[in-house]
Amino acid sequence: MVRSKSIVPVMALCAVAALAGCAAPSTSGHTYTTSEARRPMRVETGVIQAIREVRLERSPQTGTGTAAGAVVGGVAGSNVGRGKGAIIGSVLGAVAGGVVGSHAEQSLSERQALEITVRTDAGRTFAVVQEADGESFTPGQRVRILTDPSRGTTRISQ
């Protein structure tokens, strides 16, 4: 027979593994997916007009964090007391774990980003949002604009 106290560390490890899957793929100007490699991209040049810090968040949330947190919280709460105390502990633990797991999923999937407004040499003005990955941009700076026409994606680089 498995003791419920020995299940808690296993459930915690499962929750961490589940939350690790919540992290969103990178959308920085330096990161490419394997499917983007060796694809032709249209290259333009332009000047940065404005930069604004924004946040990227996964939409919609997967619910994995909430579910994993509720399971771990419920198991941990069931170790409180006996009989009705264990049932109440399970319910309260599941609710608290779900809330904590939801916040954990959100914080893992949010990233700092930049909204970069660029005016191309051809006179077109547009904005691109990409993950802030340490590359610094300033208004008035000349940049390259890389666009993958088949995917409709654009990135700004120095």
Structural class: alpha+beta
Quote the average pLDDT: 76
Helix count from the secondary structure assignment: 3
CA(first)-CA(last) distance: 62 Å
User: Strands across the major sheet, in which order?
Assistant: 3-2-1-4-5
Query: Could you estimate the helical fraction of the residues in percent?
Result: 25-40%
Tally the beta strands: 5
* Estimated radius of gyration: 23 Å
The dominant shape is: elongated
Largest pleated sheet: 5 strands, antiparallel
Low-confidence parts: 18-23
Strand content: 25-35%
Order of helices and strands: HEHHEEEE
Summarize this entry quickly.
The chain is an alpha+beta fold and 158 residues long. It is built from 3 helices and 5 strands; from the N terminus they run αβααββββ.
